[in-house]
Specification:
It is a single chain. By secondary structure, the protein is an alpha/beta fold. It folds into 2 domains: 15-132 and 257-322, 3-Layer(bba) Sandwich (FAD/NAD(P)-binding domain), CATH 3.50.50.60; 136-254, FAD/NAD(P)-binding domain. It is built from 6 helices and 22 strands. Mean pLDDT is 91; it is low at 1-5. It binds flavin-adenine dinucleotide (FAD). Flavin-adenine dinucleotide binds next to helix 1, helix 2 and helix 6. Flavin-adenine dinucleotide is lined by residues 21-27, 44-47, 52-54, 57-58, 61, 63, 65, 97-98, 126-130, 173, 261-263, 292-293, 302-305, 307.
Length: 345
């Protein structure tokens, strides 16, 4: 693939063709695709690093459903998405939360929390679930163990090496983490309050074949230790029988609470916490597209692969708005011929 003629990012105060709000996987792929389409593009994110949920919540987790990768570490996928996007030298602004969207002269001004204004012809919102925070244990007394053996996200797998781990939860995340940690930990116990997991069948099959000890119908009652977690008391919710387990680390996977924050106030049509888009990924405001976890439409799947496809469509819609003579379909990146319907090939 040929590099962009202009090989440094455009000054931040320029007028951009497309400004992308959110530099998660979908925003990063959108930046790449906009570069492919010859657009002047800027990425803005409130976090200090690229990658969205992948960097903030599960950098050391394997992703198994990425097209073309039997498995890929989240942090490696972010690295490669960033490298792919950077081929076209997008302007990147980190640690800037976009708070306002104002239509101006056929384009938009985006205001950010440090007080900067970004000028752009079109906008692509790839803000995921907005600001996200893990759901925590209800017992407020357990907060004293956060940073001392109690974890709600896993920033670095190495801290679990050779440790005794209690995993709490029954979703994909709990099952996947149990499988990952089982490879490096001394022992892994997984408790879940029901009898069935809300996880992929294949992951559950692997879990049952692994060395992880699975306790169904079990819940966490108490965490004990002097400054640091040393024991967890769990109970069988059918019989109330209690068991004390010696543990070094407790990982809680109850999912995440999402907060769209300022995006709610931009006059966009919402369905719960998602932006409603049409098949070209346009929101109700002409010139404002959305893609990835933040969007909803019939048949929506909140996955990285689908988000990447949506980003490509959103960028093509933005391209036509910036350049009405441009076609929606840009051709293939490999430069192959386009096929006529019905032609033999
Ligand atoms: C533990 C876990 C495991 C997962 N495993 C998989 C998996 O195996 N396969 C899969 O396909 N998906 C998986 N997912 C889901 C996947 O991570 C999401 O589908 C994906 O991250 C969505 O990408 P996105 O770019 O739309 O949003 P995000 O990754 O959420 O990125 C959005 C970005 O927008 C930024 N942002 C939000 N609001 C603003 C604002 N106002 N101003 C500036 N920036 C803003 C955020 O800081 C964030 O960086 C998993 C999710 C979790 C939590």
């Amino acid at each position: 693939m040929s590099d962009d003629a202009n090989n440094s990012p455009a000054p931040v105060d320029d007028l951009f063709d497309l400004t992308i709000v959110g530099a998660g996987p979908v925003g990063l792929f959108g930046a790449f695709y906009a570069g492919m389409r010859g657009m002047k593009v800027k990425l803005v994110d409130s976090l200090a690093e690229l990658g969205g949920q992948l960097s903030a919540l599960y950098p050391d987790k394997y992703i198994y459903d990425m097209a073309g990768f039997p498995k890929v570490l989240a942090r490696d996928l972010v690295r490669d998405l960033a490298e792919q996007a950077r081929q076209f030298h997008p302007t990147i602004c980190l640690e800037e939360k976009v708070t306002t969207l104002t239509p101006v002269d056929g384009g938009f001004e985006l205001g950010t929390e440090p007080g900067r204004t970004h000028r752009t012809k079109t906008v692509l919102i790839t803000a995921g679930v907005g600001a996200f925070a893990p759901k925590k244990l209800e017992n407020a007394g357990f907060a004293r163990f956060e940073g001392h053996g109690l974890h709600y996200v896993i920033p670095n797998l190495s801290i679990f090496e050779d440790r005794r781990i209690l995993m709490v939860g029954g979703g994909d995340s709990a099952v996947d983490w149990a499988l990952h940690l089982e490879e490096i930990a001394k022992e892994v116990t997984l408790i879940h309050r029901r009898d069935g997991f809300r996880a992929h069948e294949d992951s559950v099959r692997k879990l049952n074949a692994s060395s992880a000890k699975v306790l169904l119908f079990h819940e966490l009652k108490d965490l004990q230790g002097d400054g640091r977690i040393a024991r967890a008391v769990v109970f069988d919710n059918r019989t109330q029988a209690e068991t004390t387990i010696e543990v070094d680390e407790v990982v809680v996977n109850f999912g995440f609470l999402a907060n769209l924050g300022p995006i709610r106030t931009w006059g966009l049509t919402l369905e719960k916490i998602s932006l409603v888009v049409n098949p070209q990924m346009e929101t109700n405001i002409p010139g404002v597209m959305a893609a990835g976890d933040i969007t909803t439409y019939p048949g929506k799947l909140k996955l990285i692969v689908t988000g990447a496809g949506e980003a490509a469509m959103a960028v093509c819609t933005a391209k036509m708005r910036c350049d009405p003579k441009a076609s929606y379909f840009p051709g293939h990146s490999s430069g192959s011929a386009t096929f006529e319907p019905g032609a033999a090939h």
